[in-house]
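WARN no homologs supplied; continuing
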Amino acid sequence: MALRLLGSSFPSSITTGCYVTRASLPSKSLEFSKEYNWKHNSRSIFERGSTITTCEKHDEKKYLMNVTQSHEAEPHSQTIFNSIIHALDAFRKFSRFYAFIAMIVGSFSSSLLAVDNLSELSPTFFNGFLQYVAAFFFMHMYIVGVNQLADLEIDKINKPYLPLASGVYSFRNGVILVTSFLLTSFGVGWIIGSKPLLWALFGSFFLMSAYSVDLPLLRWKKSTILSVMANVFSMLISFNFGPFFHMKTMLKKKAIFPRSLVFATAVMGIFYGIIMLAKDIPDIEGDKMAGLQTLAVRLGPKKVFWFCVFLLEMAYGVAIMIGASSPFSWSKIFVVFSHAIMALFVWYRATLVDLSSKDSLQAFYMVIFKLIYTENILMIFVR
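OK structure emitted
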């Protein structure tokens, strides 16, 4: 009877326990039921555990295979994408595009000075401008590249993020890049056939090579006077004189010196000198170790910083005087008013600089570049 009750009460293999109550069984049957029930449930649980474990292992293996396959495909595409991004970022750091943007703005403004009326803003004008920018893009790449090659040990201290200083570009690859850019620049200039463009390319090449390359009678950056002169004349040639006379050649017009070009030479020359002095302020540590006696090394960052601010204010004062002497009322009002605002802005921005912080000084250096962008635009309105 007990066995029949137990038989009818035992669940199937998927049931986890017995439903026979303690009261419905005799004591011997109860003991037997306990023993059987324990053995049966233990075996059932063990078998279920084995089954579940096997299934789980199968599912886990299938999951790991899927994950592995997805990760095998995903990292390959991500690696290529990351490599491209890394290469572009290294090229951006190598190129110093903020300086090239200043050249584009300056050369466009100077090209506009060669135009006497709006009808001359023809496809010939824009084609000539693009030709000039294309040739000077490669010259710009040569200039920044040869400077990084010559200053490799200094940049490891002052600018360790640059690709040559950080080892992203090898010295050999840097030499190949710089030589290729130089030859391409002169090649483009030769194809265009503009004599003012070729002279501007040669002038920038000579001055900036003399500034950077460590050869007898060269490496002018060791001297503050020669350093400033080389960079000022190079920037005047490439930003102002070169594009102006190139555009006169493209438009087949007689080259004369207008009032606005005289203004650009006077005011922008001061700006270019300031940018060279300000550049050395955050780089004192590396320049000292290299034995470069820059003005910032000799006088200290504070004195050179405020000297640069004084020169900026003087440049705006000269611009205000030139604007006030204009025979055109609209030019007089605009030039005087705009430069007065810029002078106030420079003074306010200078008071915010932390002279003990290299980052703060570097940020002000970049502000000066933006001032150069702005000034190259404002000089268009000088008449």
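The CA atoms of residues 131 and 151 lie 31 Å apart.
OK
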